[in-house]
Design brief:
Layout: H1 14-28, H2 35-53, E1 62-65, E2 68-71, H3 74-84, E3 88-95, E4 99-106, H4 117-130, H5 135-143, H6 146-149
Antiparallel strand pairs: 1-2, 3-4
Helix pairs in contact: 1-3, 1-4, 2-4
């Protein structure tokens, strides 16, 4: 099912979204994985999937905020319940450059079976590609792509602009 920027809220896939969170924290987690970078990983997961297959993985809506695409439901519908269910632990640490920063640790393993083969490959690709990227690098990259460039401040990004994203192109599905 294709998603557009207006029908996303009703179609969140909580199971895939939560397992992608657990995957990103377990497999991409390092000192550079905070809340902003986590938002960017979800943005790429959904926008690349939409580009290649006409559907997202999580069903999320992303808004244009100053630091790039922001996952509208991540905090309230995914992170908080994951903490309450003891799936992840969230801590804050101080940084001279960034102030308080969020850090995550998994307390439970993700279930790879909730994803199809394409999604598992894309998740692995995103971690291997962006593992060592700083948050600033991720922000700069997303600011150069059509979904963010052609959206209005604080408004939803349009999945139809995802053709501009150049990552994971060798795996595109016909």
């Amino acid at each position: 099912m294709a998603h557009n920027k207006t029908d996303m809220a009703a179609t969140l896939n909580i199971e895939k979204y939560t397992n992608a969170l657990l995957f990103f924290v377990a497999e991409c987690g390092n000192e550079k994985l905070g809340i902003t970078k986590l938002n960017k990983l979800f943005y790429y997961l959904d926008f690349i999937s939409y580009r290649d297959r006409g559907k997202t993985v999580t069903g999320e809506t992303y808004k244009r905020l100053p630091k790039g695409p922001f996952a509208d439901s991540l905090e309230e519908k995914i992170l908080k319940p994951a903490q309450e269910k003891k799936l992840i632990e969230r801590k804050e640490d101080k940084s001279e450059k960034y102030g308080l920063r969020n850090r995550f640790q998994t307390l439970k393993s993700y279930d790879p079976q909730v994803f199809d083969e394409y999604e598992r490959e894309l998740l692995r690709y995103l971690c291997s590609t962006f593992h060592d990227w700083s948050t600033d690098q991720m922000i700069a990259q997303t600011h150069s792509e059509a979904p963010w460039v052609f959206s209005k401040p604080s408004k939803a990004l349009d999945y139809k602009e995802s053709d501009d994203i150049e990552f994971f192109t060798e795996k595109a599905v016909a």
